[in-house]
Structures are given as C-alpha cells and as structure tokens.
Amino acid sequence: MVIGKRTDKTKIWKLGNHGISEVDHYKYLGVYISRNLNDHFHIDNVIKKGNRLIAYIKSIIDNCNNLNRVYYGNILWKAIALPSINYACSVWCGSSCDTDKLERLQLQMARCILKASRNTPRTALYGDLGWIPISDLQNNFRINFIDRVLKMEKSRWPRLLLDSLIAFNCDFNDFNYKILSCIENIFKKGNANDIFDCIRNSKDISNTFWPSAVKQALSEASIQNWSEEVTSKSSLSDYITLKTIPNLENYLLDNTDFEGVNLKFKLRSNTLPLEGRICNWTPECNGLCKLCSDNCKENIRHFLFECPAFNEIRTDENTRLKLQLQSFDYNEIWELFINGNSDVKLQLTLGSDNYLFSKEVMNILDRFCKAYVKRLWKKRSQLINKENR
Ligand SMILES: [Zn+2]
User: Fold this and answer.
1) Rounded distance from Cα 317 to ligand 1 centre (Å)
2) 250 and 283 inside one domain
3) Is the pTM for the entire model greater than 0.70?
4) Does 287 lie in the same domain as 248?
5) Is 253's pLDDT higher than 50?
6) Same domain for 323 and 363?
7) Reduced DSSP (H G I as helix, E B as strand, rest coil) percent helix, strand, coil of the chain, to 5
8) Measured in angstroms, how far is the CA atom of residue 385 from the centroid of ligand 1?
9) Total structural domains within the chain
10) Is the pLDDT reported for residue 87 higher than 60?
11) Could you tell me the residue range of the domain that residue 83 belongs to?
C-alpha cells in the first residue's frame, strides 16, 4: 500500500521475481488503514459488522420467549457488540457523518430491544435504557489511550508519534487524518484546555489525575446534552418530568410481562399511537378521541385518566391499587394518587424520579400501571375494531 499520492503509476512492486499487487486498504491488527489515511473504509466495515451483530442479538431475544429481552439485549449489546464496534477506536476517528452512522446502529439496537416504533426519540430510548451515545463512550477509551501513551518512555514509537503530532500541531491535512483535532476536541469538551496546553508544551502531567477529571466533565456534558435534547422536544414535555438522568429503569426488567413493559415505555415516551399523536403526521386525522363524545384530544392524560369509555376499568384498577397500598400501610400514597392533579397521577402511574418510594411501593405502582394500561389498550382496540366494522 502506498500512502498518499502515487506519482509514478507505472511502477510495479516485486519480491524476487514475484509481482506484488498494490492495494488501497490494508487490515493491520484488526484496523483497516487506507492509503488516503481517512477512516471511512474502516468505519464502513465496522457498520457492516455491527449490523450482523444486531441481527444476531435480535435472533436470540426474539426466539427465546422465556428470557427478558431488555436484560439480555442490554447485556449482549454491551458485552459482545459494543466491544467489537469500538475495537481500537482510540486510533481511528471518522467524520461527523461516520459518527452519525455509528450512532444509528445503537439506536437501531435500542429500538429493537424495546420493540419501539421508528419515531421514538433517541433520548427516551437511551434515557430508559441508561445508554450513552457511542461517541461519548469512544471518547472515554481515547482518554485512557492518550493517558497510557503519555506514561510511556519518550523513546517509544506511540509516544514519539503523539509528541510530534502535537509539537508540529499537524493534522496531516493533506491526508485528512484528523486524530489531533479529535484529541483536542475531547479536551475542549472535557473543560481541560489547560491540560492540553500542558501536553502541547511538554509539561509533565503524570502526577495529575486528569483522566478521571476529564471523564467526569465529559459525562456531565453528556447528561447536559441529553437533558437539553429532551427539553427541546415538545413531544417529551411529560417525559422530562419523569426522568432527570439516563439510567436503566427497573420496570423494563420484568421477566413475565413484556407487553406491559412495551406499553409503559410507549406511554412514557409519548409514542403510543393515540389519535392526538397520529394527527401530527396524518392530515385527515383531527386528533379527537373517537371513543367518547367529550370532543377531547386523545392524548395520554385523556386516555389514562379522563376518557369515560374506560370508567369501568379505571374504577376497578383504582380499587385494586387502593387495597394493595392500604394492605401495606401506604395509605398516604393512595391519598396522594387519588387526590393528585393529572401531573401527579401521571408521574405516579408511569414512574418518576420525583417520586421515589420503597422497592415494595415501586413494585405495586409498576404492577398497577402495567395491568391498567394493558386493559385500557385491549379495550380501546376492541372498541375501534367495532367502530370500523
Ligand atoms: Zn375519550
């Protein structure tokens, strides 16, 4: 492989009498190096591999009915797929377009695990699964790698290369090799320009704990980004009242009831196809509830707490919840629920960081929510089918 422009194209390579063919890409220690030194080719291969791994994980979680698809999907993604996708990511970095492609892989996996629809916002998927963007994950590996190289003897090749990259402030622009700007960006994002300046000026930083400080700052920035993204989406105006940071939700780890898990997630992320939601992209739909004569928009609150079509189920399930809570002496929680406004009711039903109770109470509320929404959804489907007939 010849790196850079080939001036004399007639030249051929030989080893003894054997001709050696020239290639554009060469795989070395698991990473494709391209003659123009950009990483598209390697990343395209990573994406192909990622798609195969997703298909493999999907086949496992789809075909085993008795295992929890969220629990195992999450483990298989993190223990098998991600290490393979992120392999050696400290020495490759793509364009923002490559980063988006990699992120779409993870998004696809998240949707598959939760059986979420295509229009589910990434922030809600990552929020409830407790996932962070792939690029943030890779930056952590890159920090570890830079730290390791900086601790090496100055005479070693990786150290010599990093030192000279920084000393000459060069990015091999002709070759589109962006590793230095990638490193610089990580320090900028991690509020550590001063550390980068120290590295640039060859000051000894081996006694500082910069890697953990930078990682901490990056993690805070990542949560901040997530929170801003949630706030900016009008469809997630309720979700922001349920969740303050991305972390794996316990309600997802229910072995016996994926239908309940799925409906609860769709309500939390506001992706349940109610009329009030469908009308956003279906012009002929007016968004009004077809099941009652209240002339109300069929949104989550109407569906859960107001629509008279479900009065019977509501009374029934509320009574069950009341008895459950009272039998464990949690009368004040029942009072809070039944006397609360629709915000309080919604947060208690769907689970919210604003209301953290004992595990026992959380379980009661979770079971109530799943049983209740399954009955509502079933009844709604029956009523709509009847109407369509
Ligand atoms: Zn209604």
Assistant:
1) 18
2) no
3) yes
4) no
5) yes
6) yes
7) 60, 5, 35
8) 15
9) 2
10) yes
11) 41-254
